[in-house]
Amino acid sequence: MKVLDVCEIFYSLQGESSFVGMPCVFIRLSGCNLRCSYCDTTNSYQPGSRMSIEAIVAEIQQYPAQVLELTGGEPLEQGNSIVLLEELVKLGYTVLLETNGSLYLGDVPPAVVKIVDVKCPGSGAAGSFMRHNLKLLGAQDELKFVLTNYRDYCFAKDFVQEHELLGRVVHFSPVTSVLKPETLAQWLLEDGLRVKLSLQLHKQLNLR
Q1: Roughly what angle, to the nearest 10 degrees, separates helices 150-162 and 181-191?
Q2: Within 10 Å of residue 62's Cβ, how many Cβ atoms?
Q3: How many CA atoms lie within 13 A of 31 on its CB side?
Q4: Cα(133)–Cα(185) distance, rounded to whole angstroms?
Q5: How many Å apart are CA 22 and CA 123, to the nearest integer?
Q6: DSSP letter string, 95-133
Q7: What phi and psi, each to the nearest 5 degrees, are found at residue 87?
C-alpha cells in the first residue's frame, strides 16, 4: 500500500498562479528540504498523518472542485507523491504541483501543471534551484519568484532574461509584510517587464 505523510487536506479558492480564484482542493504534504525566511506554512515541517493514496482520493472526492493542488512543504521530497499525481491525472482532475524547484522534475506526469518557485536571495535559500529543471518545463508550466526587496527583484529580472523565460507565465509575488505591492508594481511598469504581479488572493479574502 502506497502511503504519504499528509499535513492537511482542505478546500478553498486557489490564491495564486493562473488558476487564481478557482475552487481547488489542496493536498499539503509534510516535510520540506528548505527553510525560507518568509515561509507561511511552517506547520508542514512537522510529521503529519500517514494516509494511503486510496484514503487521500476518498477525501478529496467529497469536494466539488475539479482542480487539485499538491503542495507542501516540498511535496517531491516524498517519492510516492509521483504515484499520487499519476492517480489524480487518471481520475480526470486538473492537477497542479507547487514545488520549490530544488528537486528533479523529470518524473512528474506531463499532464500536471508545475508551478515552480525560484528562490531569491531574500528567501535565505538562493542557489537551491535545480537549473536543469528549466529544460523539463512543459508549455503549461509556470514559474514564481517571491520577492522581499529590490535586490530580489533584480535577481528575478536577471534570471528570466538570462534564461529567456519571458514567453512563459512568470509570477512576481511580493512578501507584503516587507515589500509593498505598489512598489513592485512601479518597478515592473518602469522596466516594462512581461511578468505578472501576483498577490495571494486567499490572504486578501482571509481564506486558508
Answers
A1: 40
A2: 9
A3: 13
A4: 28
A5: 28
A6: EEEEE-S-S--TTS-TTSEEEEE---GGGT-TT---GGG
A7: -65, -40
Q: Determine the distance from the C-alpha atom of residue 126 to the mean position of all C-alpha atoms in its chain, rounded to a whole number.
A: 16
pTM beyond 0.90: yes
Domains in the chain (CATH in brackets) are: 3-204 (3.20.20.70)
Cα 151 to chain center, whole Å?
A: 22
Chain segment 70-115, per-residue pLDDT in tens: 999 999 999 999 999 999 999 999 999 999 999 999 999 999 999 9
Whole-angstrom distance, CA of residue 52 vs CA of residue 1: 7
Contact (CB, 8 A) for 196 and 169: yes
Residue 31, classed as helix, strand or coil, is coil
The runs of H, that is alpha helices, within the chain are: 53-60, 80-90, 150-162, 181-191, 201-204
Q: How far is CA 48 from CA 5, 59, 73, 114, in A?
A: 6, 16, 11, 24
